[in-house]
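Much of the work behind modern protein science is quiet bookkeeping, done one molecule at a time. The protein below has been through that process, and both of its lines are reproduced in full.
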Amino acid sequence: MKGSSQQAIVAVLAGRSAIVTPEKDGCVVVFDEQSDEQDSAVIKEFASHLSHELHCPVLAVLNHDDDIFWYQLYLNGELADEYDSSPGYFDPSAEPSVPAGGNAKKLCGAFGAAPFAKVENILRKDGYTFAIERHTDLVRALGIPAFGVGAGFGSVADGNLPEGLDEDSIVRIGESEASGGITSYTEYKHIITTDPKVRNGEPCIRGLPIAVSDIFDYVAAGMNPEQIIAKHNELTVEDVMACMLYVAHHYPKKS
């Protein structure tokens, strides 16, 4: 995703199990547990939802057995581009064919990249042995993080973090089926408190008269953690993230 913050993305992931990376080069990567099943319908719905809610470009990528590199680009919730490096792969009677779809101009426009000819060549090139190689070249050309290349929810959830990521920088949310339903919301439980004498029992931060709802309103207004902390210098980035996790867990969006 381009142009949306880690905390804003966490806020719209209610009801899902996912891992959200920090922002790098203006982009954030999301590893979604349901999408690990490689059901294209699930991936399409998820990507469209994120793009619509966050009003930002979303590039959804699937790498099947390192034979297929497939992506969809969503702009404001609408499908803008789709690419398949191996059309007909699942049809035994199909003849080998060149990659289908892919609009280099739209990709470059969405992610602010300039090398149109280079991106076009990557999409059409026939010399890739493994799909991950094409994916790697594409993210480099577009100037977006390589966190998602060769990684998925399962591997990251198991602690196999891509280069450049660490446990302190990622946000784990939701209840993973793979972990037996063990919640990953422990990050906020030592921070969010309730006290009848503070804000009438409304969930607050560490007993301070600063409510979770206050932080959510700030984020919804477009403020980042640094701006919120400048307004309330007794807070930390961890406090702000804890509030967003709390909101996502306790107040899921209605479909």
